[in-house]
Design brief:
The structure is a homodimer.
Chain A lengths: L4 H17 L5 H8 L5 H13 L3 E2 L8 E2 L1 H10 L8 H13 L4 H16 L2 E5 L8 E8 L4 E8 L4 E7 L6 H15 L9 H9 L9 H15 L3 E4 L10 H12 L1 H7 L8 E4 L11 E10 L2 E11 L4 H24 L1
Antiparallel strand pairs in A: 1-2, 3-7, 3-10, 4-5, 5-6, 8-9, 9-10
Helix pairs in contact in A: 2-3, 5-6, 5-12, 6-12
Chain A binds a DNA duplex through helix 2 and helix 3.
DNA sequence: TGTTAGCACTCTAAACTCCCGAGTGCTAAT
DNA sequence: ATTAGCACTCGGGAGTTTAGAGTGCTAACA
């Protein structure tokens, strides 16, 4: 769609004003505050055009204009010139990410805290999915007479542990047997193959000894499932409660409170930066909100997502800028970690 | 304070009606719905007395009565006959707690989910504090060339792990040295003594070798700190958003979103079951809410807390009943686990 | 003395009306 | 193509009215 430059400038002005104030804006105010060198009548004509194009609407006949979802869409597609954040902000992000401790999980937790803090809206970060990963090795630590901890280390450097409990007393020898037998089989296997079927054939191949293993194997399966499934960290959802639209906020809270739902959000996200506005969202709970999402990369492959969720009139420019910078740095820092 | 039986019954009726409907209730409705054998005029007299006693108030001169905080207080102190939950509910609680996996943390997570589900309000559960616990032992698992996992096992059977990373390549021998040296010192020590001061004297006593240890010791300190500090699991806070009082809900969300704040809530709770109504709460964020809390016991000692947070007009009877039963069962099930 | 019927009184919330003013679209002049 | 001018629209705030739920008081009654 080809649209005259002045129309675009006016559209941008309306949207940015509305994002800032939340109030419908009319031709006169627009003329005064934005310093256009044209009369309000001319602006009115343009506004009428933009309205009939479907980019703006009026809450009622005699009110100012408000962007429609299509308007926001055009804005983010064509009128958003995103810059890197200020040096001060960049420094701040760096320092906060560096301060997180040595687990990727904690870095991602910091990402979501950081995003919601800087943008004053809800933020989400997902851990890398383990779907590409393989078992590197599995270790055992005895923690009690009947209990032990299984530690799974994946080829991607992720570490997951799981407690299990047997109904017989565990001896160190037994753990050595478990360790050797299990690692011989699973080392190098894709995580998703460590499932119930595998456990059965594995236990069966040990005859009587196999009877001692189900608890241990169950723990292994669960550890793999943990490593395979992405976890989702959220922050600042309550901030939305202070920003007007109660039902939108409530729905977002609902969505983010449900781990399964929020995980699903990122399952089929295309990589790169994406913005979903209102009804464009896959979840009906986001029908009145916007989601801005970007991927972070580990070894040049998209690993997980950072995202913010806010009202339709969220600060898209700032959001994209900060999202992309944070994602870049988070990827780099996690890479350093794993390289070790 | 001595109060005639009939007055008490009327007070109870008003409060229970208000809890159910949220509407002020007047003398006539009270007479009709609760089947008192006295005229509405008589009820009016009693209501006037209860009002001047400070247990009831009127939103405006010509409206029905609503309980005051003092009214709720009298109600929970004197008029609450708590029964065990139904068999069906008991079964349900049991099965849900059994289904949680073998870590106390997961059981407590289930508790909070369960409470908020059954009572439709926000629920909280805290893990046992480790303040009484001592180090049982510490184990190491190598997870990468430069990284390892430290596993802390406490005398209370709690297991915490922590990753750490050194800037030199780790060898199995080195871990064996760490293991032996560290355990010799710390086994049996109270968790809170494993702190920076300890780490310094410990590292110092190893001379040059001590220079290799700071990362490992840092991890040990953090694991102990983890084990020492109670974690707080919350569920269902969003349910409050559907129950009228928005600012109360918002404040609760705020409180529960902040781990430090919500931990503080339970720091000095007396054991047993307690109810804090409105301004009785220590946190100003709960000024418009009620908190009902009970302890669960491990080996006959109070270990942690289960609680629900809801509006002043929460269903106190159901809440206490379900809280106490859940706490009892949770304690028992955790005991079984740890006994192993 | 405790209970009750009757009644005048109070007060809110909902419905209705009125009107200001911001904002519009159209027309005619530049 | 732009602009000034103007009649028109309409939401929402202010003021008014009204219905009805609920009260407290009084006087009669058991």
């Amino acid at each position: 769609m080809k649209i005259a430059l002045r129309k675009q400038q006016i559209l941008a002005a309306v949207i940015e004003s509305y994002i800032q104030t939340g109030e419908p804006i009319g031709s006169k105010t627009l003329q005064n505050t934005q310093g256009f060198n044209i009369s309000s009548a001319t602006i009115r004509n343009e506004l009428a055009d933009l309205t009939s194009l479907g980019f703006l609407k009026q809450p009622h006949t005699s009110a100012g204009r408000v962007p429609t979802e299509a308007g926001y869409r055009f804005y983010v597609d064509n009128l958003l010139d995103v810059k890197e954040p200020d040096e001060r902000v960049r420094r701040y992000i760096d320092s906060r990410l560096r301060a997180s401790d040595d687990a990727p999980e904690h870095i991602l937790e910091s990402c979501s805290a950081l995003l919601s803090e800087l943008l004053s809206i809800a933020a989400v970060a997902t851990t890398p999915s383990g779907s590409e990963a393989r078992v590197h090795k599995i270790r055992f630590v005895q923690t009690g007479r009947y209990t032990s901890m299984l530690v799974l280390i994946t080829s991607a450097g992720m570490v997951k542990s799981r407690l299990f409990r047997c109904d017989f007393a565990i001896t160190p020898e037994m753990l050595t047997v478990f360790d050797r037998a299990l690692n011989e089989q699973v080392a190098g296997m894709r995580l998703e193959y460590i499932n119930k079927a595998f456990a059965q054939t594995f236990a069966a191949s040990f005859g009587e000894l196999g009877l001692l293993m189900p608890d241990m194997l169950m723990a292994a399966i669960e550890a793999c499932r943990d490593a395979l499934s992405t976890s989702v960290y959220t922050s600042g959802a309550t901030k939305l409660l202070y920003q007007g639209d109660l039902i939108a906020a409530r729905n977002v809270l609902e969505l983010l409170g449900d781990k399964t739902e929020s995980r699903r959000l990122f399952e089929n996200m295309p990589e790169g930066t994406n913005i979903y506005i209102g009804k464009e969202n896959s979840s009906p709970l986001l029908r009145h909100s916007s989601l801005a999402q970007t991927s972070y990369y580990i070894d040049n492959r998209p690993a997980g997502a950072l995202a913010v969720i806010g009202p339709l009139r969220m600060n898209y420019k700032g959001a994209v800028s900060i999202l992309e910078y944070t994602a870049k740095r988070a990827g780099e820092i996690i890479e350093e970690l794993i390289a070790g």
